[in-house]
Design goal:
By secondary structure, the chain is mostly helical. Helices cover 75% and strands 0% of the residues.
Length: 237
């Protein structure tokens, strides 16, 4: 095996070892989030709440694909490497298709995400104090996003005249509407929409970076597979 082929082999192995660990991390994060923070996802629209499940599925696919790449490089198996490259190319095509579809849908109706978030939150906030699960979901959202109320903080005033503890700023045990500096005054529908708008470009950038790495990995995998096949042919004569 030539020097260049050896370098490609170790590059493919190390890159896929990192990918395998990243895939395992996605699975672990998805599982932990699903079982420990499910109350927050219950308050979001269904297409937002499936994020932990998607994290588990994507992590498992990444782990299996990276495992194929690692084993193919170590065992110098053209079959494994070719399968690995084909899977990467298929994932890349699916990512592009989903990205184009999402881009078109967002541009067709920019108000749709805002409407989905508001409608889903409205159902949850309406049951605050009446349903234990919905109450936990609201408290989790208000604490995490530093907001209070669906559209206005005064909608969250309790019977004793105070606001829920999840509305209180850090270090404040009891907050009241009369003390404006003691609670978060931003509405939760606005806070979640701002989070969605800020995180979308980051997610898009990460997706583009992953897509580029997938193409490079597929090309390197096919090159290594071809080189190993040629080596077998030469040794057969």
């Amino acid at each position: 095996m030539g020097c260049a082929t050896g370098i490609v082999k170790y590059f493919v192995f190390l890159a896929n070892l990192v990918f395998a660990l990243a895939g395992l991390a996605l699975v672990i994060i998805g599982v932990l989030y699903k079982f420990n923070y499910s109350e927050a996802t219950d308050a979001l629209p269904s297409n937002f709440g499936v994020a932990p499940i998607l994290s588990i599925i994507i992590g498992a696919i990444v782990f299996v694909t990276a495992f194929l790449g690692c084993c193919g490089a170590v065992k110098e198996s053209p079959c494994m490497l070719t399968t690995y490259a084909i899977i990467l190319l298929v994932i890349f095509i699916i990512q592009v298709a989903i990205g184009v579809y999402a881009f078109i849908k967002i541009n067709e109706d920019e108000a749709e995400p805002r409407s989905l978030i508001h409608e889903s939150l409205a159902k949850t906030f309406k049951e605050y104090g009446n349903d234990v699960k919905k109450t936990e979901a609201v408290d989790a959202i208000q604490s995490w996003f530093h907001c209070c109320g669906l559209d206005r903080y005064d909608h969250m005033v309790l019977h004793n005249g105070s606001l829920p503890h999840s509305c209180c700023r850090d270090g404040v045990s009891v907050c009241r509407p009369t003390n404006y500096n003691s609670f978060y005054d931003k509405s939760c529908s606005k806070a979640l929409m701002e989070f969605y708008q800020k995180s979308s470009p980051i997610i898009g950038g990460v997706a583009i970076g992953i897509a580029v790495i997938e193409i490079i990995g597929a090309v390197f995998g096919l090159c290594l597979s071809s080189s190993i096949r040629n080596q077998y042919r030469r040794s057969a004569y």
